[in-house]
Amino acid sequence: SVLIVEEHPTMHQSLCTAIASESDFRVLKTSLGFQEIIWRLRVMPPSDDVFAIAEMPEIILLAPGNPGDVDLQAIQKLRKNFPEIGILALTRDDVAGQARDALQYGAHRVLAKFTSRAILLNALRALKADCLPNSLLQENTNI
What we know:
The chain is of the alpha/beta class. 43% of the residues lie in helices and 13% in strands.
């Protein structure tokens, strides 16, 4: 399952469509921003009107890009509090050091937003396989 954190509606819908059309992925509740995802996964104390996500994702696909390092700090908190969730960051190619920063703050993988659908899906599949517990990997190879 994939949780998409992308604040630009057109890009968000494109990502949802590309991923949901694949039989090996499910897109969880979307339209979340960085602060909302932190609250819903209960990394930060939630307010009374915010509820937790019903199902933990296997992967969080996010696009850091807000001014400052708020998005990077969110990646760091997600990685620290939910090490079993794979984090794939989509970066703009015009932001110097954004990919490096995302990796330093804890993203497992980084891709440019202009990457092809095939490369994005391959990266998600590889990350999904990387984040599976070893016991699940052994069970899946015996099938």
